Amino acid sequence: MTPVLHVADVDLVRDGRLLLNQISLTVRVGEHWALLGPNGAGKSTLLSLLGAVTHPTRGTVEVLGHRLGRVDLHELRSHLGHVDPRHTPLSRRLSVRDVVLTGATNTLEPVPRRTPTVDETTRADDLIALLGLAHRRDAPWPTLSQGERGRTLIARALMPSPRLLLLDEPATGLDIAGREQLIERLDLLQSTFPQLSSVLVTHHLEELPPGTDHAMLLRDGSRLAAGPVEDVLTSDQVGKCFDHPIELTRLNGRWTVHAART
Ligand SMILES: Nc1ncnc2c1ncn2[C@@H]1O[C@H](COP(=O)(O)OP(=O)(O)OP(=O)(O)O)[C@@H](O)[C@H]1O
């Protein structure tokens, strides 16, 4: 089966700086990847390649079987769910449901004079319920908590039934309850849509859903390790990635990190 993502020997240069250095990665159907690394490691830059936002300088990137450079990026992006909780340029007082429905048209605002179909409305309501927001369905965007906004944007990203969900630090700024609700819903998504693959960017292993099965460690634009979590998320490798001795433990599927005692 064609991989969902296939990245081979990719370099990315911006303003004369090598931001990604010989990156290779293959994500297969149903896999859930964590992309980890310290500030400035290149995680968001790599995610912008995986999300068909930018082209590589060298090497090849295939997204859903389409090679970047040979395909209309805008069209390709309409088949991806890319969630960046920091970018929500939603100007009007849209409700949760309105925002989720904009995922059907891949627009930031509802398309004027276009009424959503019954199927779209039903799917929006199903996704809103799946993300635990049924009680907030008609709440206006400005009144939502950060966690509710993040989950609304995930529901929005799922409207076109994407095969790939890209999540850029989805738990940033959430309190413990917000983070745990997010993780619970991501877990539910993974079991509800077994064909869905995902890549989640974070600095914090505590934020990884238990269904995370693969990980890539990035540092200074280079790949330190990539593969099944059992092989990659070890105290030694994660410590090297963040340049600090740590102890990593996993309990009930969740990871905890603390500084290694000397
Ligand atoms: N357009 C650009 N031109 C030049 N440098 C850039 C550009 N975009 C990003 N960078 C630099 O590339 C490096 C990697 O940035 P990136 O945002 O991908 O890192 P990150 O791992 O996501 O970091 P963080 O965890 O802080 O979000 C940083 O040093 C950043 O300043």
Automatic annotation (TrEMBL):
Residue span(s) of domain ABC transporter: 5-245
Keywords tagged on the record: ATP-binding, Nucleotide-binding
SUPFAM superfamilies assigned to the protein according to its UniProt record, in alphabetical order: P-loop containing nucleoside triphosphate hydrolases (SSF52540)
Cited InterPro entries: AAA+_ATPase, ABC_transporter-like_ATP-bd, P-loop_NTPase
Keyword Phosphoprotein: no
Pfam families assigned to the protein according to its UniProt record, in alphabetical order: ABC_tran (PF00005)
Annotated GO MF terms: ATP binding; ATP hydrolysis activity
Protein name in UniProt: Iron complex transport system ATP-binding protein
Organism: Thermomonospora umbrina
